[in-house]
């Protein structure tokens, strides 16, 4: 290590080094003053660190004098470590003399800087989110993009001027592109609407991920939206159609339409009262339409009513269908009402279950689990003792006609979603209600279920309870498998981690899958993983992964976080 040797040290050493030689001292002082004049300080108030030709600038000290004032403490020398080339690291001893074996000439004018340790290898960059069908890095997925580009350019060239006749332009385009007259008008509108949505258009021309059907859905949804909310619509739709995950599924036209309807319910609910042709929505409500097909000799009955009336009618038909099937079983068995064997069976069942619960309590076993296992055993015994006779499945039309002819009143339950203490805004099966429908449904609500704490509930059994089912339906909206839009209420509730593999019965481990995709996952032909916010990742045997997002009314609340934004922190009361 170098001895730190400042200019003042050198000056004082030269004065005190030869006190014993009276004839050398005057000469030493003369040579020192001459050196002082010939080699001044590089900057007033700066010191030297002297070491065999090595000069390092230090920090400013004192007041620009060569010697500090008596009152001021002497500044500490600069601590600089260096490795000598061809010698040891300790180049001087306490008196500034090189140690034995050192070679001062080998390090004159040289300063060796220790090399920094090698930096850690950089972490691999995070993959940029993209839609699976519009993956720009996969040559096999370029067909979807090329088709969208070609169709967009075609319809963009066919856009008419404001004074041109729409029917004439649509007719020519329909014949040229082999489309119907209505499809041609919708395709033109799907291109024209992007001029009112600059942010969405900028995203589209970079990703080319919106085909004709999706563009047409956007145009239909924004047909009567006022200009004042179009910038907000542009921002929200662009955010919705921007990929946030790797290999994410593109929202379907149906999902886009539902999302726009949700936005209109928040921003401009008055537009929900109009039909696509601009007429009032009440003009087409509640009606019957008969259609006769003479080609095959059948007829069609179409019933148009409020959505809650149709859903109630559907539930009533289903219950009536079960009732008719039960009557058919009793007729086959020759039993008019509950048979004596069945009555004895149910009486013994209660006593048997009570014994099971008592044993479970003594053995510190979960009573719910023991009861469930006993129920399965009793059901298998009952099916074995009372085999169900095979009958033909009653057609729903038979149940519908029986419901009308017998005038049977059936109580049904419909699930709606809305803010606490407010009117319902969403009805099961994916319906965002209009203002009139919200008021009508508010009068029909006779039971309110709070789903706030449902995500924290964990059951000890396989089947979820009614509150968990309602929450999963409200979060998912549809079947979660890629490309499937079957309503959640018509799907199975599947455990992401199988229940037999210790998968818990809780919201974070359940999703809606239609029967076909449920069987596909159970068979191992598809694997699924779900995050805490409801985002699901599906993996197929060939290694392909596709990400889907929940589309229900509770999807936004399940993705909430505990942080606070800067804007919210700085917000002042109005």
Short description:
This protein is mainly alpha-helical and 574 residues long.
Keywords:
3-stranded antiparallel β-sheet; zinc ion binding; 12 strands; endonuclease; mainly alpha; HNH endonuclease; 574 residues; endonuclease activity; 40% helix; single chain
Give a description of the structure.
This is HNH endonuclease. Pfam families: HNH (PF01844). The protein starts with 6 loop residues before the first helix and ends with a helix. The chain is mainly alpha-helical and 574 residues long. The chain is globular, with a radius of gyration of 42 Å. The longest helix has 27 residues. Helix 4 crosses helix 5 and helix 10 packs across helix 13. It is built from 18 helices and 12 strands. The chain folds into 4 domains: 115 residues, no CATH class; 151 residues, no CATH class; 108 residues, no CATH class; 105 residues, no CATH class. It has a 3-stranded antiparallel sheet with strand order 5-6-7. A 3-stranded antiparallel sheet has the order 10-11-12, with no helix packed on it. A two-stranded antiparallel sheet has the order 1-2.
- The main sheet orders its strands as 5-6-7
Determine the structural class based on helices, strands and strand pairing. Answer: mainly alpha
Low-confidence stretches: 17-22, 41-70, 78-92, 103-109, 382-391, 558-564
Percent of sequence in beta strands: 5-15%
Radius of gyration: 42 Å
Question: What is the number of helical segments per DSSP (H or I, 4+ residues)?
Answer: 18
What percent of the residues sit in helical stretches (DSSP H or I)? Answer: 25-40%
Q: Tell me the overall shape.
A: globular
The domain count comes to: 4
Mean pLDDT over all positions: 75
Keywords: Endonuclease, Hydrolase, Nuclease
Pfam family, one: HNH
Domain HNH nuclease: 467-519
Organism: Corynebacterium spheniscorum
């Amino acid at each position: 290590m170098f001895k730190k040797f400042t200019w003042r040290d050198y000056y004082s050493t030269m004065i005190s080094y030869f006190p014993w030689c009276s004839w050398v001292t005057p000469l030493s002082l003369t040579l020192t003053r001459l050196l002082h004049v010939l080699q001044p300080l590089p900057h007033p108030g700066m010191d030297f660190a002297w070491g065999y030709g090595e000069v390092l600038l230090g920090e400013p000290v004192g007041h620009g004098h060569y010697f500090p004032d008596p009152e001021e403490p002497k500044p500490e020398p600069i601590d600089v470590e260096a490795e000598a080339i061809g010698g040891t690291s300790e180049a001087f001893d306490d008196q500034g003399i090189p140690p034995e074996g050192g070679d001062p000439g080998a390090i004159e004018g040289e300063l060796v800087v220790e090399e920094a340790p090698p930096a850690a290898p950089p972490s691999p960059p995070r993959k940029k989110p993209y839609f699976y069908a519009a993956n720009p890095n996969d040559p096999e997925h370029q067909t979807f993009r090329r088709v969208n580009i070609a169709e967009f350019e075609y319809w963009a060239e066919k856009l008419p001027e404001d004074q041109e006749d729409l029917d004439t332009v649509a007719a020519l385009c329909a014949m040229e592109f082999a489309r119907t007259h209505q499809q041609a008008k919708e395709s033109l509108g799907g291109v024209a609407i992007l001029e009112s949505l600059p942010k969405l258009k900028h995203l589209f021309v970079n990703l080319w991920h919106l085909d004709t059907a999706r563009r047409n859905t956007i145009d239909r949804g924004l047909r009567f939206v006022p200009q004042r909310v179009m910038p907000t619509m542009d921002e929200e739709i662009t955010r919705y159609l921007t990929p946030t995950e790797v290999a994410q599924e593109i929202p379907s036209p149906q999902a886009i339409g539902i999302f726009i309807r949700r936005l209109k319910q928040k921003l401009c609910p008055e537009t929900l009262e109009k039909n696509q042709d601009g007429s009032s929505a009440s003009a087409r409500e509640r009606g019957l339409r008969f259609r006769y097909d003479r080609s095959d000799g059948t007829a069609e009955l179409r019933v148009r009513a409020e959505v809650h009336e149709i859903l109630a009618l559907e539930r009533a038909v289903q219950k009536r269908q079960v009732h008719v099937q039960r009557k058919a079983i009793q007729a086959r068995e020759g039993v008019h009402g509950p048979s004596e064997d069945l009555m004895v069976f149910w009486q013994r069942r209660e006593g048997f279950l009570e014994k099971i619960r008592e044993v479970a309590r003594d053995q510190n076993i979960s009573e719910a689990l023991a009861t469930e296992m006993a129920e399965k055993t009793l059901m298998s015994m009952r099916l074995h003792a009372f085999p169900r006779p095979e009958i033909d499945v009653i057609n729903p039309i038979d149940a519908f006609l029986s419901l009308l002819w017998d005038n049977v009143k059936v109580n049904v339950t419909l699930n709606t979603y809305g803010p606490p203490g407010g009117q319902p805004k969403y009805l099961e099966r994916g319906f965002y209600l209009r203002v009139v429908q919200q008021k009508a449904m508010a009068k029909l609500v006779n039971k309110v279920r709070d789903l706030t704490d449902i995500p924290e509930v964990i059951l000890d059994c396989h089947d979820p309870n009614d509150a968990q089912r309602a929450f999963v339906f409200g979060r998912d909206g549809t079947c979660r498998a890629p490309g499937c839009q079957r309503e959640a209420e018509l799907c199975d509730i599947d455990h992401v981690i199988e229940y037999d593999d210790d998968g818990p019965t809780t919201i974070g481990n359940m999703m809606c899958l239609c029967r076909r995709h449920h069987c596909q996952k159970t068979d191992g032909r598809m694997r699924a993983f779900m995050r805490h916010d409801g985002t699901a990742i599906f993996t197929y045997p060939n290694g392909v992964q596709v990400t889907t997002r929940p589309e229900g009314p509770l999807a936004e609340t399940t993705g909430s976080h505990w942080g606070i934004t800067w804007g919210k922190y700085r917000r002042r009361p109005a």
